[in-house]
């Protein structure tokens, strides 16, 4: 892997209109933690006339969100709009709003994430977007919005996807308790 970066840089320079070279070069820059350079190359990738494959374009937007955390939600929304059949950007927005404790937005994006039920088989598909987490975030959003029945339902789904997760099991008891109080 050590020789990829210089080779990809050379390939992107030799074929500046090749969207694939541009994407792989940008991604390699990202993997090396060279976020400013990666962001510049991802932008270039998105501007290329041959850059039309939606999954790859959505991935560029997702990586841009990682490279520029101050604008992450902007890039992830563009990524979701580019290809709303993929979970990755929707999930990133779910996490983003969870961290802000914006429960309405977190609920909305978790619901959008979960609504994407067909898992693609390409290499852009990330396991974390298909884990228990989207259901967990949705359960926590419902809980904080006072929708305890829905929080319990989503909490159970999250636990079924990760049965050994003790925090999820504890959350189920909190959701059940709140539901019984109301």
Short description:
The chain is mainly α and 182 residues long. 71% of the residues lie in helices and 0% in strands.
Distance between the termini: 57 Å
Calculate the mean pLDDT score and round it: 96
- Strand percentage lies at under 5%
The sequence of SSEs as H and E is HHHHHHHHHH
Q: Report the C-alpha radius of gyration, rounded.
A: 19 Å
Q: Shape from CA axes?
A: elongated
Low-confidence stretches: none
The proportion of residues forming helix, as a percent range, comes to over 70%
Main β-sheet, in a few words? Answer: none
Structural class label: mainly alpha
How many β-strand stretches? 0
Instruction: Work out the helix count.
Output: 10
Task: Give your account of this protein's structure.
This protein has helices spanning 4-14, 19-31, 35-47, 54-67, 72-82, 88-99, 103-115, 133-144, 148-161, 166-181. The chain is an all-alpha fold. It contains 10 helices and no strands. The model has no long low-confidence stretch (mean pLDDT 96).
Question: What characteristics describe this protein?
Answer:
single chain; 182 residues; mainly alpha; 0% strand
Topology (elements, then pairings):
Layout: H1 4-14, H2 19-31, H3 35-47, H4 54-67, H5 72-82, H6 88-99, H7 103-115, H8 133-144, H9 148-161, H10 166-181
Helix pairs in contact: 1-2, 2-3, 2-4, 3-4, 4-5, 5-6, 6-7, 7-8, 8-9, 9-10
């Amino acid at each position: 892997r050590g020789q990829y970066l210089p080779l990809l840089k050379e390939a992107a320079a030799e074929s500046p209109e090749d969207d694939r070279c541009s994407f792989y070069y940008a991604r390699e820059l990202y993997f090396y933690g060279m976020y400013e350079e990666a962001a510049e190359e991802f932008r270039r990738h998105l501007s290329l006339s041959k850059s039309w494959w939606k999954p790859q374009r959505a991935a560029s937007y997702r990586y841009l969100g990682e490279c520029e955390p101050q604008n992450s939600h902007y890039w992830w929304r563009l990524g979701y709009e580019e290809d709303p059949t993929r979970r990755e950007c929707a999930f990133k927005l779910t996490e983003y709003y969870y961290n802000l404790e914006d429960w309405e937005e977190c609920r909305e994006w978790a619901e959008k994430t979960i609504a994407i039920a067909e898992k693609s088989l390409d290499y852009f598909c990330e396991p974390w977007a298909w884990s228990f987490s989207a259901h967990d975030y949705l359960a926590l959003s419902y809980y904080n919005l006072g929708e305890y029945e829905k929080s319990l339902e989503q909490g159970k789904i999250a636990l079924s996807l990760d049965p050994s997760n003790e925090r999820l099991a504890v959350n189920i008891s909190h959701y059940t308790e709140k539901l019984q109080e109301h």
